[in-house]
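question for whoever is on the cluster today: can someone run the full assembly for these? three chains, 740 residues total. i dont have access anymore since they changed the login thing
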Amino acid sequence: MSQLIGVWVAAFLTLCIFSFLSRDNPFFRFAESLFAGVSLGYYIGIVAVNTLVPNLINPLFGDFGANAHLLIPLLLGLNLYTRFIPRIAWLARISLAVYIAYYIGINMVQKIQGEIVPQVGSTILHPIGGVMTPVDNLILIVGVLAVLIYFYFSIEHRGAVGAVSRLGVWFLMLGFGAAFGYTVMGRVSLLIGRMNFLFIDLVRITGQVF
Amino acid sequence: MFWKLRLPLALTFIVGLVPIVTFFLSTQAPVIGPAVQFARDRVERYMVIIAGFALLLGVVSVVQGSVRKIERRRPGWPFAASLLAGLVVMGAFGILSAMRVGPFQGLLTAPDGGMTPFFWMTRNLFNPLQAAMFSLLAFYIASAAFRAFRVRNVEATILLIAAFIVMAGRTPLGEYAFGWLPGGERWLPAVTDWIMTVPNAAAQRGVIIGAALGAASLSLRVILGIERSYLGTTEK
Amino acid sequence: MKLERLVNIDRRIVYLCIAVGTTLPLLLPIGLPVSSTPPVRSLFEKVESLGPEDVVLLSFDYGPTTAPENTPMAEAILRHCFTRGIKVVVIALFPIGGVTMAGEVLANITPEYPQLQEGVDYAFLGYKDGAQAAMKQMGVAFVNVFPVDNGRRPLGEIPLMQRVVNYDDVDLIVTLSTNVIAEWWANLVNAQFGTPVAVGATAVSAPKYYAFLDSGQMIGLLGGLKGASEYERLVIDRYPHFARLYDRPGVYTAIKGMDAQTVDHAIIMAFILFGNTVHFLIRRRDRRAGLRDA
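^ ran it for u. tokens below:
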């Protein structure tokens, strides 16, 4: 029975959201606000169950002597919330600085070692071996260079630079056209899932109960 | 001034260097190896925990805003109430699940194989609301493509042709388009594969390299304290 | 009829066409064929090369927003791994629904393999915050990030996790992703630890990953519902007993979804062509009337 109630609640909320296609209305606004509230409540649940309890609370209170150092992330994490108290909001900058700095540092290494070097290296090494034809290899190398020249705005795009930049735009248009095609596929897939739920799953589960 | 600006900037510099320096230094090296291992492991474990606290910052903001709206009876306040109701109920289910109280035995399935209350809410409210909200995009992309996708110049024509080839080639439509010709069912999919692996890859690679260079330079600016907007100040 | 009225059709007519085009093929399946592409075959062949001594790390980095694309991928890959006896470690790093998607997929698939034992043949470690920090620390030891599994069992008590300590013990990482986390597996984990990475991406992200595929940072790519349907097709062709699972009436699969996908693509392409045709007719009419410069 709880499955039947649940699936009809889900169907009602889905139709409330879809009602926006006609016009804004109280049903949509109710579903939208519920969407925001339930999503935030979901975050609370997964963070509490999956991170705070096993990685912080249980080790800290289970064996404080060996895990006293976990007071550091506890204090830094709680300190983030001082931003909501105007008089001591500046304290949150300390935690923010630590949190953002670490991910900025990781990001810097990721971008250079994980993107720039392999992507540039792969482009330079393209004529050597691989599964693509020599013509394809050449097109890829020319395409990458043309796109990079298009994004180089420190010199005016005139003459030879302008021509290569124009070629870069054409490559970008091919890429964006492909991306648009895939985006259509992606968006339509989401609707297919919801329609499958409304017309197949809902009917099947209701039929099973009755 | 020291506590409000200089200390955060100093911490940014020191902590920002940790992942960079530990990347280059080996944990097997004599003397500094264990220190590198210690710094890297401790910092990474702390960041997992702090990320959990950071994810919940938005909850406090939204609760503050909603409570204010309800108190002052601003237009749309009943919807703020439904937002809070959803948040409180789902959040309470989540915290009780963390404490393993009564029927709240975790997030997914209970020890007896049944659905926990949190999972029931997830499956019947969270999932359909998320999915339905994003599935509206299918309607909007169709409407926007009809109204706004106009071939006005060479670039738009290239974009349209590439989009059509991919949209047809990535479905069985592409096989039927020329399937009446001998071997024709492979033409459009083959052209689509070529577009994705050659010109698309070239364009995406150019964008990736350019964006990565920009992101790396921004990272350096933040670590060196030149860029301070993340602290909410541009003060020197 | 005035041309301007044709180009200003009520948007609800467009919505209705899309809704009908999506629903009818689901209710009345056409059964259009699905053929595979090299990026999908590459992942399939990689999994085919693995066996009972090998370990796949499967990361659920998507939520309900892209479940119609990513869940069929997850189910097909899990069935493939379990059929070949490959050990699977399941994690989730996406906060908006990753762990619940993982739980649902495992609950759907594991009953098909009653001989499998959780903790021996597969392990479900749950979700963890901090994505990049967690990814880096898993290169040292999984237990530093996941001290317990999703069922609160200490990792030291799980037989599979006693031998899978870090990425050195993982033969393939497959991420099913809706956003940038897939890139992090490639540009952080593959770049710094060398473990092969394959991606099952939502269609919106897939075009970008062809650059990573070309550079070898990703060894396989499933792009959107099409990619999911291709993998399902490859699995069914290689293991024909799966056909009865995928042909069950009322069960959503990517292959069935491709019928609706095809019809919707045709509708959208028709609308774009119609809109541009009317637009050109308007321009030609105005040019002839001398109102607009060619």
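summary bc i know u wont read the tokens: The longest helix of chain B spans residues 187-223. Chain B has a mean pLDDT of 89.
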